[in-house]
Design a protein that fits this description.
Blueprint: H1 13-24, E1 38-46, E2 52-61, E3 67-76, H2 87-100, E4 108-110, H3 123-131, E5 135-139, E6 157-162, E7 165-171, E8 180-186, H4 190-199, H5 208-216, H6 221-225
Parallel strand pairs: 1-4, 4-5
Antiparallel strand pairs: 1-2, 2-3, 5-8, 6-7, 7-8
The protein binds two DNA strands through strand 1.
DNA sequence: GCGACAG
DNA sequence: ATCTTGTCGC
């Protein structure tokens, strides 16, 4: 699959932050995905040594949520984990996996924040710009923002606020479990993000696209093998 | 100075 | 992210 070469990756943390501030101005906060036929899930696992990583992209048929394509890329991790700069650590591997993909998904669900980020440019937004595909930020925990605890039942929603801005939503995807932090990645409105996320849940906390990508990335795989 | 902090 | 078994709760 094609990518948009926006910038080099060998940046210092300070340069990376400046870049995010510039990229944020290009992010589109509205949009709808018309009758999506496919949806992708993306996740990255990192070895304990923090040296090697594996990016996984799964593409599912939107109506049946069955896998129709996937790509894996393993490589060296060269950037440290710094809150707010996750894309500079994981995106390079994801880009390589994207090149190996055969089916171009109509929308992408990324494990991480979209605009619910200090500079409004989390990894889901960053990828949306580079892949030029609508993206949804689907994080398992909070980076920034304040929100009330949503209803305990699946479907409970609460706005995620930062100052006077609504940067996302806290969504309960399954009864009684810890909610997910959903935010706009690129080219899609928050209401639509929430609708798609809930539509992709099948009894687990994680929506099928990211759940499958998480498994494909190999995270905690040894636990299942045994 | 202190605490928070996606994965 | 990763280290890791049993265990508390719906």
């Amino acid at each position: 699959m094609e990518i948009v070469p926006l910038h080099p990756w060998n940046l210092t943390p300070a340069q990376a932050r400046e870049l995010q501030t510039r990229l944020a101005t290009r992010i589109q906060l509205t949009g709808t995905v018309r009758n999506p036929s496919s949806i992708a899930g993306i996740d990255v696992s990192v070895s304990r040594s923090s040296r090697k990583g594996r990016a996984a992209i799964t593409v599912l048929d939107y109506s049946s949520l069955k896998l129709i394509d996937n790509a894996i890329y393993e490589g060296e991790i060269s950037f440290p984990y710094i809150p707010g700069l996750l894309s500079f650590r994981e995106a390079p591997l994801i880009i390589e996996a994207w090149k190996k993909l055969n089916v171009r998904p109509d929308v992408i669900m990324m494990d991480g924040q979209g605009i619910a980020h200090p500079r409004r440019c989390g990894i889901a937004s960053h990828l949306g710009l580079m892949l030029d595909v609508p993206t949804i930020g689907c994080a398992k925990s909070r980076l920034i923002g304040i929100a009330a605890d949503p209803a305990k039942k699946a479907g409970g929603i609460t706005p995620l606020v930062d100052g006077d801005e609504i940067i996302g939503a806290v969504v309960r995807t399954k009864d009684g479990v810890k909610p997910l932090y959903i935010s706009i990645g690129h080219k899609i409105a928050i209401e639509h993000c929430i609708e798609i996320v809930l539509n992709c849940c099948r009894g687990y906390r994680l929506p099928e696209p990211v759940r499958m990508a998480h498994m494909a990335a190999g995270a905690t795989a040894l636990h299942y093998i045994k």
